[in-house]
Amino acid sequence: MSYLLENTFLLQLDGLHIIISFLLFAWIGFVRSGFGFGGSAFGLPVMLLIYDQPLFWLPLIGLHLLFFSGLTLRTQLHNVDWDYLRRSGPFIIPSALVGVLGLLNLPNNWILAFIYGITLLYGIMWLMNWAIHSQRSWLNKFLLTLGGYVSGISLSGAPIMVAVFMNNVAQSQLRSTLFALWFTLVTIKLGAFVITGVDLHWLSALLLLPVATIGHIIGLQLHHYILENHRVFRQAIGGLLIVVCITGITPLIAGNSG
């Protein structure tokens, strides 16, 4: 037990923050399986209010995403649109690598401002029920490149790339294809973390896995219900994200102005 306490950073937070962290990872699991994307995008900003270090939370989210996407793909490899993944890869992968480099080298406050800013944009879009529409080839390429970069720096690029994949992948293959994409991007990010010596906090990830699994299972059970009522869910989540992001970004702006 002493080894666990000494080597698990999560358990060094205060009790309330530990409880909130467990609830957040259940929430991420629910969103990821319920919507098929967006777990990290809609959970990371709240985590940063608890502890403002992305390089602590992102390995935890990445390890879980690797586990659950791998679990899903285990029986869905035949249903992945590998052709579109190959065609979109040259736009997504290089920009994701650039994003990872930014995550590892840019000042922490810049990363925080970026994450809160992009998530605030998502929140406004969801609250207003706006959607990204892409019908032109050049716009598709731009969104894939942008989504790759955002995923590289924060694992929050899913809502951008989904807009493109929805128009180019059959509905029956979309979910499996997206999970294959998330698996690839997370593998790249975690590999970069290992190479550069970033602590993966695997013990913390292991402790959080049971609650993330509960959220994942609930999301799977409610997946069709969520799709049928997606507008209500999107607007509720959008409103919450706006509040969270304004709460997080205000001290950054005040600190810079001071």
Biggest beta sheet summary: none
Secondary-structure-derived class:
mainly alpha
Domain count: 1
> How much of the residues is beta strand, in percent?
under 5%
Number of strands: 0
Anisotropy-based shape: globular
Q: What is the end-to-end distance? A: 44 Å
Order of helices and strands: HHHHHHHHHHHH
Percent of residues in helices comes to over 70%
Rounded to the nearest angstrom, the radius of gyration is 18 Å
Kindly report the average pLDDT value: 86
Low-confidence stretches are none
| Number of H- or I-type helical stretches | 12
Give structural notes.
The chain is an all-alpha fold. It has one domain (2-257). 82% of the residues lie in helices and 0% in strands. The chain contains twelve helices and no strands. Helix 2 (15-35) packs antiparallel against helix 3 (39-50), helix 3 packs antiparallel against helix 4 (54-73) and helix 3 packs parallel to helix 12 (230-257). The longest helix is centred in the C-terminal third of the chain and has 28 residues, at 230-257. The relative contact order is 0.19. The mean pLDDT is 86.
